[in-house]
Amino acid sequence: MTIPLLQVQDLCVNFQTRLGQVRALENINFSINKGETVAVVGESGSGKSVTASAILGILDKAGRVDKGEIVFAGMKLLAFSQRELSEIRGREIAMIFQNPRAALNPIRSVGRQIEDVLQTHGPVAQGDLRERALSALRDVNISSPEHRYHQYPFELSGGMCQRVMIAMAISCRPSLLIADEPTTGLDVTTQANIMDLIKQKATELNMSTLLITHDLNMAAQYCDRIVVMHAGHVVESATTAELYANPSHPYTQRLIAATPADHGSVDDIAAIPGNLPNLLHDTPNCRFAARCEWVEEKCRSEPLAYVQLGASHEVACWRAQYYASA
Amino acid sequence: MHLLEVSELHKHYLVKQHQRGIIDSLRAYTRTGTKAHSYLHALDGVSFHIGENESVGLVGESGCGKSTLVRAICRLLDITSGSIELKGHNIGAISANRFVHAAERAQIQVVFQDSHESLNPRYSACQCIADPLKNLLKLRKPVELKQRIESLVEKVNFPVELLSRLPHQLSGGQKARVNIARAIAVEPQLLILDEPTSALDVSVQALILRLLVNLREELNTSYLFVSHDLNVVRMVCDRIIVMYMGKIVEAGDAQTLFYQPSHPYTQALISAIPSKNAGKRIMLSGEISSPIDPDPNVCRFYSRCPRREQKCKEQAPPLHQISPQHSVACHFV
């Protein structure tokens, strides 16, 4: 069996707030293989972005990893100091943020910002810098890069800014790219262009991608595997085809039913009842229990059961094992 | 007679010289030989209608003039030329300032995009809903108000016990419901929904969409539904209008437009919708042409169109009917 590029094992993250402890992530397990594209899908507040921050070691000060392990290419990232992590961040693991205009430096031209990244992460001769930055811009299909080089983020459209972010992220040839909602706020046509670009670059550079999104349709179109999160738990993870063919967690089933698809009318989509539980308070062992139609006493009292339904299909629901045998 | 008839609507914004930059001004000067002001054509000859109890979707990229159109129809801004007729009465002729006091004001209501931002943070849910009742319907009696508000929140499935809460104490779905209740409080003929579900999670989106579909039947209202989520538009709307840079490029029955789009832009738009069984993508390359003083003889989509030909540069294609319910602005359809 191949060793995954990134492995997240039993990750628990807590946030210390004035009101008490928020258990944002509980026993998160998933892995990404070399060259694979994996999506983390869930509602807002399900812990998608916290997972990404934990991997990069950029959790908010109030957040703390209490338990678990993040293994990246054989290295245990949680044992690293910030200085050691900064060697990996940007060079080995790069991230694209949600709002490109806010993530870019507003008072530095985009070309200079790409040069900054190149300079920080590797010895580049002063004379080559400009050429490298221009080729990075060319790489992401930005027209007239010589002109764009001197422009500032406010002069570029949202899609263009996101391209610059991608150019920056992949300029050091990382082996893992984390894209946190890379297309929110962009038009559908631009969104499709950006996603195509990410996919194309990932294939070219044999780069693994972790796509964080709330859009199940997008995850299904671009990703090999989908990890579904709910209230800080991974409730189901499977290959895209398997997840759609055989959704086994009630939440996944609900999520698929709630997402508008190509066909069907408004009567075909069904809302998911209830809200995410408040993670400040004690939650039942299965955090979906309050919203689940099949809930039984066992769900609340017994520890969350992870059922293996196949080589790469895992479900956090004890009922799933009966489906599997049936 | 249609409920709303918009014809040849133009909205041009004056672009100040210093906003254009000196080089561009000089360039314009050398091209035209005049020092005339330049204008941003936000809406350029938009004509369409909305029938009684009809739901019309409006889609297009950001910057195509959707919001300008919405603001023009609900008379939040003055138009350059054209007419907006509500039941045969030209409300486009009333200035935005005077429309505040016009009788038609209650006929058109808007549910704005961000349900949190559009609620007054210091008004409770109850006060938010009571506001239009007091100001537009001149309801004063507390008993009467209370009755109306209670029946309204029941219509939108908002829990009565939460009426005293402030917006920050409500969830996203609840805020959306307050916004809808507030808009339908005065029983408008036309309800404009500007991205009503874009800030909501999918889990709640389905509930709000179903609520909107049911409300239309119950209240006999027409909808103008603005959204960038084409799947949602298809579900809620009878007809869809596609805009591109201030012009309507295609308008037609929702199902036809979705499954057999005719205009190259619509085709690209539909093919870009993410889906697990996505077909062939139509890539749009090329720069978006500038909306400032566009050449009236060139098709607006020319610079990005995969089917462009010499003809498109010489004469801009007019919006023409290809079947009774379907019109397209393209030479090749």
Describe what is shown at a glance.
The complex is a heterodimer of chains A (326) and B (333). Chain A is of the alpha/beta class.
Beta-strand residue fraction of chain A:
15-25%
Low-pLDDT runs of 5+ residues of chain A are: none
Strand order of the largest sheet of chain A: 6-7-8-3-9-10-12-11
Helix segment count of chain A?
13
Describe the structure.
The complex is a heterodimer of chains A (326) and B (333). In chain A, 35% of the residues lie in helices and 24% in strands. Chain A has 13 helices and 12 strands. Chain A has helices at residues 48-56, 82-88, 100-103, 110-120, 126-139, 145-149, 158-170, 188-205, 216-222, 240-245, 250-258, 297-301, 320-325; strands at residues 6-17, 20-32, 37-41, 63-72, 75-76, 93-96, 176-180, 208-213, 225-230, 233-239, 307-310, 313-315. In chain A, the strands form 2 sheets. Chain A has an 8-stranded mixed sheet, sandwiched between helices. Chain A has a 4-stranded antiparallel sheet with strand order 2-1-4-5, with helices on one face. The radius of gyration of chain A is 21 Å and the shape is globular. The mean pLDDT of chain A is 90. In chain B, 33% of the residues lie in helices and 22% in strands. In chain B, strands 6-7-8-3-9-10-12-11 form an 8-stranded mixed sheet, sandwiched between helices. Chain B is globular, with a radius of gyration of 21 Å. Classes of the chains: A alpha/beta (326), B alpha/beta (333). Chain A binds chain B through residues 43-44, 143, 158, 187-193, 195-196, 214-218, 220-222, 240, 244, 254-255, 258-262, 264-267, 269-272, 275, and chain B through 61-62, 171, 201-207, 209-210, 213, 228-232, 235-236, 268-269, 271-278, 281, 283-284, 287.
